[in-house]
Design goal:
Length: about 240
């Protein structure tokens, strides 16, 4: 059998997976396509720092790997294949891990509509939501906005706003009359709210019931990672 040109020389599932989707930007493209089909320009807008030639290369490589395919009915459109959609639990698990160690946003780091949608899907706690009233959350984080409908243990979340890729908006959940809330946060405030570190009462509610933000915090949660021992002085104290 011929050697793989860019392989790791490892007969391993992890090695093979990284060979297919481990190149720089590849998993972020997969993340965005988990939200729905996207045109080339949509992907470029969501990932503004990716050079156009690299985006074209990654899309070609992901197609060759069987992860992405062209959308015949959409000019310049791409979507995940069934094989690509099997990456969803992997991407959501990686998203949860990343949020647990997120830190403060960098000066030029932004939140896209797609990134916000995937963050909420990764933070969703169906067991907690099952005991809460059905609610539609309209959430604005910087320039990104999503509508998330929670109905028992189910979640439907889509990007919204004038520059979001048009998609069917989730319908209002059954029995959710009046159970809606709209609020806006800075990225670091969203991090603290999802981590359980923020006081929900201090978040200004743009519309809806006052308990909506606290209900959101119970429904969407990612446990933050413990700080490294050396950051807390533990390793230094032991060494001393």
């Amino acid at each position: 059998m011929a050697a793989r040109a860019r392989g790791f020389g490892q007969y391993s599932g992890v090695a093979r997976a990284i060979e297919r989707v481990g190149e720089r930007w590849a998993l972020l493209i997969v993340r965005d396509l988990l939200v729905g089909p996207r045109r080339y320009g949509d992907l470029k807008a969501s990932l503004p720092r990716i050079p156009t030639n690299i985006l074209a290369d990654r899309l070609r490589e992901l197609q060759e790997s069987g992860v992405v395919r062209r959308v015949p009915t959409v000019r310049g459109g791409y979507e995940l294949t069934p094989l690509g959609r099997e990456l969803e639990p992997v991407v959501l698990a990686l998203e949860r891990w990343g949020w647990s160690v997120l830190g403060d946003p960098g000066e030029e780091e932004r939140v896209s509509h797609e990134a916000l949608a995937v963050a909420l899907r990764s933070a969703f706690r169906p067991e907690a939501a099952a005991s809460e009233p059905a609610t539609e959350y309209v959430l604005h984080v910087g320039p990104a906005s999503v509508a998330a409908v929670v109905d028992g243990p189910t979640l439907d979340v889509v990007p919204i706003g004038p520059d979001a890729v048009p998609q069917p908006r989730p319908s209002e959940p059954a029995g959710a009359a009046g159970a809606s809330v709209e609020f806006a946060l800075e990225p670091s405030q969203l991090r603290d709210l999802i981590a359980g570190r923020a006081d929900a009462a201090t978040v200004p509610v743009l519309a809806g019931d006052d308990d909506g933000v606290a209900r959101f915090a119970r429904t969407f949660h990612i446990e933050p990672a413990d700080p490294p021992d050396d950051a807390a002085g533990g390793l230094g104290a032991s060494a001393a």
